[in-house]
Amino acid sequence: MKGNILILIFFSVIVFISPFSYGYDSLDPFGNITITWDFLSDNGDTVDVKVSLYNLQLFRHVEEPGWRLSWDWKSDEVIWAMLGAEATEQGDCAKFKGQQKPHCCEKEPVIIDLMPGAPYNMQSANCCKGGVLTSMTQDVTRYGATFQMNYKKASHHDAGSNFSMPENFTLGIPGYSCGTAFQVPPTKFTKDGHRWQQVLETWNVTCIYSQFLASPAPKCCVSLSAFYNNTIVPCPTCSCKCQGLPGANCVSSDKTSVLQLPQTNDTEPSQPVIRCSRHMCPIRVHWHVKQSYKEYWRVKITITNLNFVKNYSQWNLVVLHPNLRSVTQVFSFNYQPLQVYGNFNDIGMFWGVQYYNDMLLEHGNNGNVQTEVLLHKDHGEFTFKDGWTFPRKISFNGDECVMPSPDTYPKLPNTAHTAITTSPILFISMLMLTIFI
Predict the structure, then answer these.
(1) 403 exposed, middle or buried (CB, 10 Å; 0-12, 13-18, 19+)?
(2) Which domain of life is it from (predicted)?
(3) Contact at 8 Å (CB) between 337 and 345?
(4) Cα(182)–Cα(382) distance, rounded to whole angstroms?
(5) Which residue in 18, 81, 221, 300 has a CA-CA distance of 20 to 30 Å to 334?
(6) pLDDT at 235 over 80
């Protein structure tokens, strides 16, 4: 018995310390970014390949400055030409004589996407999105990116062996870690819909996201209120950071000059400069139980940006609540249920309407977006008691937000107080009944 317990503890520790355990998200358990490496042709000394990145996540997306794909060549391979993307550094190509030099001679090349509007002769199919990948739910036409390249084989490659894959892939996006490349069935394609062809070989690399690796501190928090209680439950104190501690920089005034804010280059995400608060989070989500009808109830959701230096484009909000299966109408936001676990429909995703509120602007008068949601009261389940109307979990842009403690949720009016206030009415009713009888 004792031996079985020790074995169980051992495996629990192994799972806990495994980097993949940090990447599990119960709201999107199978989400990942897949890198597909297709060998198109073998030209003797060079190889043509097509590299594709697919964001196979339900709600987490890649925003600016975008992905920065990198890998390690196993030998002295060099990239001769590239379409649809480019290497950030050419590297030392001195050993190549003549006027034409390789595109990149780096042992660890860093590849970035081209910007929209790139010259036509530099483009490839499904390229040039500035490194941005939308989630599968928000836009199925922009969740992938592709580029092609021709590279020189290693000097001492075996002519009779299969292709050699690079190793140590990285996406250059905080929070993502990539596994080892593995071979899969060759990709098939068609030009006319009748005849199918296939590439020589296909390899995949799977990259998963960990909120813990992306940031040791949360990035958002939730506050709550309800029409039946005057109390507004704020975000928990020190949800993201604590004022006064190292690294907890904030600005106390809304009138901060842009010239006073720190400047960063375009290749690195800007460091948050947030307004001082008790919770010190750049994003606050407020859930307000607004109104109750006979058969329906209404919720107002407000997302406020407290970051002075960041706009959130293509933002999204994911909510876990049992009554989302009965959403009747959503105002001013897009909405789609996420059926992650079979027929259970208690997870929903909200995002902005294009050209209207799909960008959450930096902190200021316009630094918020809001919606109202009308839900049907499911008989036998709906109740205002015990905080049932409040969400179980909320995430913003794929990062889970800090919720208040359940014992602080707005409560229904005290029943004793209700009895006291209604007792005069009962007394008058009984008196009138006695008189008429």
Answers:
(1) buried
(2) Eukaryota
(3) yes
(4) 49
(5) 221
(6) yes
Round the average pLDDT of the chain to a whole number and report it.
86
Does residue 196 have a pLDDT over 70?
A: yes
pLDDT tens per residue, range 117-157: 999 999 999 999 999 999 989 988 899 999 999 999 988 76
DSSP labels for 245-300?
A: STT--EE--TT--GGGSPP--TTSPPPP-EE--SS--SEEEEEEEEEE-SSEEEEE
Tokens 């018995």 -> residue? 1
Residue 362: is its pLDDT beyond 70? yes
Amino acid at 231: T
Distance, CA of 304 to chain centre: 17
Amino acid at 269: P
Please say if the pLDDT value at position 16 is more than 80. no
**Measured between alpha carbons, how far is 138 from 133 in angstroms, rounded to an integer?**
10
Task: Give the integer Cα–Cα distance in Å for 112 and 66.
Answer: 8
DSSP at 377: -
Contact between residue 332 and residue 301 where contact means Cβ atoms under 8 Å apart? no
How large is the average pLDDT for residues 383-405?
95
Report yes or no: 241 and 247 within 8 Å, Cβ to Cβ: yes
Q: CA 366 to CA 311: how far, in whole Å?
A: 11
The strand pair at 220-226 and 283-292 is best described as: parallel
User: Would you state the pLDDT for residue 419?
Assistant: 36
Give every CB contact of residue 398 below 8 A, 6+ residues apart in sequence: 25, 28, 57, 59, 60, 61, 209, 211, 316, 318
pLDDT above 90 (res 21): no
**Helix, coil or strand: residue 58:** coil
Residues 72/205, Cβ–Cβ less than 8 Å: no
8 A C-beta contact, residue 287 and residue 223? yes
pLDDT tops 60 at residue 410? yes
* Residue found by looking up tokens 């870690």 in the block: 177
